[in-house]
What does this fold into?
Amino acid sequence: MKKIKSLEMVNISKSFQGIFANKNLNLQIKSGEILGLLGENGAGKTTLMNILYGLYQPDSGEIKINNKKIEINSPVASIEHGIGMVHQHFMLIQNHSVIENIALGYKDTPFFFPKIKIKEKILEFSKKFNFPIELSKKVWQLSAGEQQRIEIIKALLNGADLLILDEPTSVLTPQEAKELFVILNDMKKQGHMIIFISHKLNEIMELCDRVVVLRKGEIIGSTETQKTDKKSLAKMMIGREVIFNIKKEKIEKGETVLNVDNINVVDDKGLLALKNISFNIHENEILGIAGVAGNGQKELAEAITGIRKITTGSVTIKGKDITNISPRKIFDQGVSHVPEERIKFGIAPGLFLYDNAILKQHHLDKYSKNSFLQYDKIKTHTKNLIKKFNVSAPSINTEIRNLSGGNIQKLILGREISEEPSLMVASHPTYGLDVGATQYLREQLLKIRKLGGAILLFSEDLDEIFELCDRIAILFEGKFTGILDADDKRLADIGLMMAGSLNYV
Amino acid sequence: MEDIIISVLQRTMIAGTPLLLATVGEIICERSGILNLGVEGVMSVGAVVAFIVTFLTGQPWLGVAAAIVAGMAVSLIHAFASVTLQANQVVSGLALTMLGLGLSGMLGKPYIGKPLAIKMNSFAVPFLSDIPYAGKIFFNQSPFFFLAVGLALLAWFFLERTRFGIKVRSTGENPGATETHGVNVSLIRYICILIGGGFSALAGAHLSISYSKSWIEGMTAGRGWIAIALTIFALWNPGKAIFAAFLFGGIFVLQYLLQPLGISPNFLAMLPYATTLIVLLLISLKDPRKLNAPAKLGEPYKKGER
It folds into this structure.
């Protein structure tokens, strides 16, 4: 017996600090339908779904189930109405076992001996939807795909007829994504309805019956996927004709800048994250590292920039050994770093713009004299930086936390470029940025390449990798499954290489 | 010789009892993600309230009940500060210790040195207390001893084998995710802090009306701090806390035992604290993942943060 035959969101508006995240949105979905919610980062997709799931309250508008108005003021109310959500960041307790995680969210978990009593029920469900799970394993031991299945099982156990999936494929390998699609299609056949949030056009076209396109908190269009194509969807999503218009010039590569020889690196858990990795990068060259998150990318970036210890092997910059020397000394050798998680590692959020503009250069003679900072010079430098890198900020005397992600990233990039590094290590430089900022940052990276710089680029965005890189290395479980030139035909199978089932090394 | 060993072990159980009670309380509190450094103060309040009520009414169990209520009442301050106001838990906990020590000193002034008329008889478990050696050591003991071990086992059962326990542990690991499952994180933390306060006060009550049967300012003598260290030593597991607490009880007793051998009493008084330091050092050298520490211990949780 299905609780929901149709669901409707009418005239939903929600603003944060005076800025509209959702503006008069209308949405309908019925049984046996997969609805795609397409839009860029910050378009308001997640906000809208968090309202449906009861995490946020709308400023105005109403939600109707089976044409009857209902109140959803908490996730519990939402679950009772038959709505389930798989969040982009999994809501799992990493140190607990799978079964404990399911017991936490399941509404009929008994008070005593919950783990023993719900086991049967879970096994029955995993059989019905045909995906096996190991109940006694701890969540942190599972792959992203397996963790996602737990989230789906949790929702189904609670009797979810409507399943909301927020960017479900962003953490999956292409193969895992395919498996997910099979599961979702099965659910659709059994009469479930699914809202599938994504900014990937291919997935929307492949999976969804209907698609609603959001831009800046408003609905731009709504159509059946069969009556549209990728090109017009892209246009609706971004608001202009062409997605990216970056042309990479052909440049002959120069001398070797970075040489990594047989390094082994251990991760936070004490396990080997990089196993005998070797590669090099030349002047005028961008080497891209592709791979699913957690296959050693973070450790590689940290090892080269001196944040993480290298167990064996060596790293040299223009012939000079920089293995396991301090990050400051590595910086002085001309290695700059645009770290991942820019707010956490790239800036000091509570300090002013001009402080952040010289975070790594404060010790240079031009900015400090007899241990005192030369603020007049620092501020002039910051003003130039802001102008040169298009950072829009009310003033250099504001705390940097008040800036948008794109502007923060532009300032970081400007800071890292300003000492003209011979090697730049850039980790996910455009992650979570809007189209304008993304394009700008990519152009800047190509400019460094043109001026003779070498770049090691980590990205989970394959489009970005293909657009910018001269060579592409695919990392899987701490080893390369391929280092190929960007025009190599074998890169068509990059998905298989990322999943470790194909190896060209 | 035999008698000495039995008597030492018997006293070890008595000395370990308050440590066990306070440690189990702190474990429950910390598993919900709240660090409570106020144990020493709450213990002291429990001790003085239990003593005063017992002294005035002649009813030790009424004294115990009053101590638990008082302990929960003062712990409410820490709960309000750390959960509702999302204040720094270290600061708020330290404040609670100072408040508790001061408050108990003030309340207890008229009672210093007065002997307690009542007696808390040791309780002999039928049949079991007749077992040679073990009977005397384990089954002919202060009622607090049985209470402490029983409560520790019960706490383990609740944390590991009930739905409520899963909620408590999840709250300490990842309050944000727990909230999305419809669990009231603030309520869970309030409950756990109050339970923890009740346990600490119970430990104090044992000290004043059973262990020494008198009140003197500062009689908790750092046991609250040792309990916090034991929480880590027991890897946040009430079951392991039983062994940890009685091991440290033994170190307390060792002081008196070694004194006749000509070892300086000051050095011996240092033993429990020195052991605590060494144990903490050894544990922190271990792999942190295996430590089992609640992931969000000591971090305030802000609801609905974007």
In short: Residues 2-31 of chain B form the longest helix (30 residues). DSSP finds 13 helices and two strands in chain B. Chain B has a mean pLDDT of 90. The two ends of chain B are 68 Å apart (CA to CA).
